[in-house]
Amino acid sequence: MVAYKSKVVERIELPSRDRRERALAEAGYNVFDLAAEDVFVDLLTDSGTGAMSDAQWAAVMRGDESYAGSRSFAELESAVRDVMGFERVVPTHQGRGAENVLYGALLEAGDVAINNTHFDTTRAHVANQGAEPVDCPAEGAHDRQSDEPFKGNLSLERARSVVDDVGAERVPLVISTITNNSTAGQPVSVENTRRVREFADEIDARFVIDACRFAENAGFVRRREDEFAEAEIAEIAREQLSYADAIVMSGKKDGLANAGGFVATDDEGLFERCKQRAILFEGFPTYGGMSGRDVAAMAVGLREAVEEAYVTDRLDSVGAFAGLLEDAGVPIYTPPGGHAVYLDAGAALPHLSDDEFPGQALVCELYREGGVRGVELGSFAFPDTDRPELVRLAVPRRTYHAEHFEHVAETAASVLENRAAIDGLEIVSEPETPELRHFTADLEPV
Ligand code: F0G
User: GO molecular function terms here (predicted)?
Assistant: First the structure.
């Protein structure tokens, strides 16, 4: 059931085919280099790109810009306490700021961090502390067709084998990313979260939840985990987060805000350490690099994120988008994730080998054909790993409507009709850091 109507609108336009062709070539076949004005339906990310509610905009007007002791920060503390169950909050400019603050307080050189799957910035922050990020995704997480309900889970078996190899004393940190962005946005069950808590206790490690998409995850738990079939989203969210020692949050996702993030914990010692790091890297601990109005908008957004109507609308609209793509014969990762639909570029363009970057070729064709911008998450973004060739079409929150999704599905279908003519790509210039090459490298058709 649709849960929103528009109160403010933004004009968009599909540039001419000529313009799209030129824009793509000028961008070096890398859609990160396109001007947003040249994009018709922008599915690059769900991060910070959502529409805020009237209540959030009202909060913006009332944002308190005081350097210290801002009323907006008190509102955030109260929202985090009510919605997420933690007493102490360290605000940061966005999620990766929170990662820097928290992982810097928990990790030392030579440590190992276990995660269901590290998101790019998480991996980079763990590595930046001189620690080693190790992924322990569930068995079958990369199976693009199975209908397992919780493919985002952390594999306890894999985690135990990491500990057997390196020794428990080297593993001070276990992270669960809910939903699991780097595994096609798949959810994590509360049952798995409980078992990860027990595992962390066994090896005397801290347990952190990356809660960026905690509300979507709670929606999946209610739909798929019997114990919670009758529970309210808000209850599920609090229960799942209650197992963690601390959470890292990007307010740009399920904070329903355009900026912001935070660390939250009940551990006083950890809180003090994070606060000191936050002063160094983010700002005074009652604003943390955000303006007071951003803090205020996020405080309202967190409460809206666990409203029943919001979560139902969110999961239903991403699910309906996935259905349109499937009906149009486009191969996708199933079941679809919470924040995005992932296209299976390997299956869509079987005539291209991995080193011709089928995912990136598909991204370029979606833009050329219909002005649609997605992002490659395959061998272009992750060189030297054996991930499947996926293209993520991330869905900004409360922003696009059925007609936009129909346009994307029609675009993808007409791209696939002419798939045999689609050329692969080769890299013609790239930065020195291969982990970040997909943001800035230039390519050319082979
Ligand atoms: N953790 C996860 C699971 C994320 O998906 C992101 C960001 C971050 C941390 C970092 O948060 O962007 O506020 O600094 N993901 C975005 C994306 C960028 O497009 O998936 P941030």
Answer: carbon-carbon lyase activity
